[in-house]
Each structure stands twice: as structure tokens, then as C-alpha cells.
Amino acid sequence: MNYKIALLKGDGIGPDIVDSTLSVLDKVAARFGITFTYTPYLMGGCAIDETGVPLPEETIKGCLESDSVLLGAVGGPKWETLPGHLRPEAGLLGIRKAMGLYANIRPVRLYSALRERCPLRSVEAFDIVIVRELTGGIYFGERGRRQGANGEEAYDTECYSTTEIERIGRVAFEMAGMRSKRVTSIDKANVLESSRLWREVMHRLAAEYPDIDYSDMLVDNAAMQLIKNPAQFDVIVTSNMFGDILSDEASQLTGSIGMLPSSSLGGTKRGLYEPIHGSAPDIAGTRTANPIATILSAAMMLRYSFNLAEAADAIERAVEGTLDAGYRTRDLGGTLGTDEITAKILELI
Ligand code: NAD
Question: How many domains does the chain fold into?
Fold first, then answer.
């Protein structure tokens, strides 16, 4: 079977971490008798330099014709003074929108080998997936300024439709089915009407998935519980803003931003897979970036877009084995560079 992968290497450390990931994909391809065809497209600062815009039409077309998209990272000081719609990050929002990606999935895992890197004093290893609604809620609602009785006011609106809640809920329940079969939905239903509808829809869905252990939690409590006992969670599903905040909180418990993969999915199998970190301009060109977040993003692509669970497992086990053997990049307190850690992971596949 051949899979067509569009590559958006981007800027800064992007090309290094994507190239390292391609060597991992090639190794699993050889081992499992699969083939991958890679087509690079421009997005971000590199696209601005070549074409004047962060997201050329050709890139959108290429991504929509591919089976999935692997992205490094975009941005850097060179493009920071450009107007918002011409900045590299506009490419990122544009491609998510063009591909109709409404679910952002962030696994947050503390490996046993990295327990000492977690800022919590006593913590069990944990493995959580945060499913965040990505295209609705307060970030997309009506907003503005107006004159009120006491002078100038500003407002933002949180609005969710049943359809939006149901489709993100299904992503979470399906994901839990592939894992420990637990879903926690996080809302603020004691105050917000949008959260009350969110909760109603989630309860209806929970009845459709009787094998999934479902619970609700208020967001303020969830922020506490993530610090108190992160291992209690399996799949968390939440709205755009709560997911934004909670996933950054959770990411800090794993040792380094260089460890965290993500995927964004829509109504089809085609997804956008990328590390959660940026282009790390401070270490660009030094070949010291940790490629693990991107390598684990590729493993997610194999699992969720291509149904290649065994190949995904092989990558995830190789990453864990490399960490268990004590190999570390600089962000994890070690000395290995991008190429050296990649070589260790390749040995274990
Ligand atoms: P960043 O994630 O790029 O870097 C933050 C810190 O983490 C830096 O010290 C960096 O060296 C380190 N770091 C990040 N990834 C690492 C890795 N794989 N290995 C080792 N160390 C790593 O965030 P920033 O500095 O705030 O942003 C830099 C640029 O990236 C900006 O232009 C920003 O807009 C952009 N950005 C892009 C994305 C994306 O492409 N999805 C996401 C966030 C930021």
C-alpha cells in the first residue's frame, strides 16, 4: 500500500525535525512492507520568501490531494514585523481551515524514564489525550467594542451548536475506544449556557457508547486535578478555549515541549500532524532540536489516518526504548543532537 504524504517542513528547526522523521518513516515502511511518497510544499516564512504569501494555493491543493500532511514548524524573527495576514502563522490557520480540521488531538504523556523532568514532586507516569474543539467557541464568536453606561466595553461570545459538540464528542469517544475507554468532558456548566448544552450533548453521546466510562468535570477543578493526579485522566474532551489552556498546562508536566506531538482532524481520515512546539529560532541551524515530537506525530498519522497500528506501535516503542536506555537531547538534560537521537530510535525499529 502506498500513502501520499504532503510535507510542510517550514522554518527554523522545521526542516531538521521533518527530515529526521522521514528516516523513521522509511525504516517502518521497509519493516512493514508499506511505501510512502513525500511531496514537499512551501508554507510559512519560506513560502513568504519565495512567493510573497505564507500559504500558496499550490500548497493547499497539494495538501488536499494527499493522504495526510506532516508539518514541522513555521515562523521566526525575520517575518515578525509583517502584517498579521502575511505572517507565517497565518499559513497555519489557513491550512487548518482549508482542510476543515475541527478536532485538535494532543497526547500528553509522561514517560517513566522522564519522571525526574516533571515539575511535580511525586507523580506516576501518565498518558492522557486532550481532544480540543478547534473551530468554534469564543475564539470564533461575535466580538466587538461598544459604549456602555460606564464608558467603553468589550465583549466576546461563546457559541456552540449541537452539531459542533457532537462531532468533537464522537472523536473523543472513538479515541477512548482505542485506549483505556475513559472520557472526561470538561466544561463550566455551573455558569455557562454553552457548557450546559455541551454537557447535554455529551450525555446523549455517552449513552451511545456504553462501554466507555464517562464523567464530567468543571474546568476549574480540572485545572487542579491535572496537577494533583494527572494519571486519573485518559481522554479529555473540551471546548476551544478550555482546551487551549489545559493542554498547555498539561504539556508542562512531561519534561519538554520537544516531546509533544499533535494531530488535527476533520470529517475525513486526512489529518495534519505536527509537533506542538514552534520553529525554535534560538537553536535553528545547530542540529540540536529534539525530533521526538515530530516522530510521534508521524506515529499518530500512521495510527489515525492510515490504520497502521502496528507500525505506529513500533515507532512509539522505539522512542520509549531510546529514553529508557538513557539517551537524551539537550532539552531533556542530555547531549545528543538531532541526528544522534534519530540514529538511536532507528536502531530500535
Ligand atoms: P518555540 O516552541 O519555537 O520555542 C520555545 C523554546 O522551546 C525555545 O527555547 C526552543 O529552543 C525550545 N524548543 C522548542 N522546540 C524544541 C525542540 N524540538 N527541541 C529542543 N528545544 C525546543 O516557541 P517560540 O520561541 O515562542 O516561537 C518561535 C517561533 O515559532 C515564533 O515565530 C512562533 O510564532 C512560532 N510558532 C510556530 C508554531 C507552529 O508552527 N505550530 C507553534 C508555536 C510557535
Answer: 2
Q: pLDDT averaged over the chain?
A: 96
- For residue 7, the CA-to-ligand 1 centroid distance in Å is 19
Q: In terms of domains, do 17 and 97 share one? A: yes
Q: Is residue 19 annotated as a catalytic residue, yes or no?
A: no
Q: Is residue 59 part of a domain?
A: yes
Of 188, 209, 214, 327, the active-site residue reads: 188
Measure Cα distances from 70 to 67, 111, 141, 298 in Å.
10, 24, 29, 7
Q: 234 and 274 in one domain?
A: no
Model confidence at 107: pLDDT above 90: yes
Binning pLDDT at 50, 70 and 90, where does residue 26 land? very high
Q: Which domain holds residue 202?
A: 119-254
Measure 288 CA to ligand 1 centroid, in angstroms.
13
What confidence tens digit (pLDDT) does each residue in 287-307 have? 999 999 999 999 999 999 999
**Domain shared by 248 and 275, yes or no:** no
* Same-domain check for residues 294 and 197: no
Global pTM reads 0.92
Residue closest by Cα to atom 5 of ligand 1: 280
CA distances from 190 to 195, 218, 219, 221, 245 (A): 8, 8, 10, 12, 19
67-89: pLDDT as tens digits:
999 999 999 999 999 988 899 99
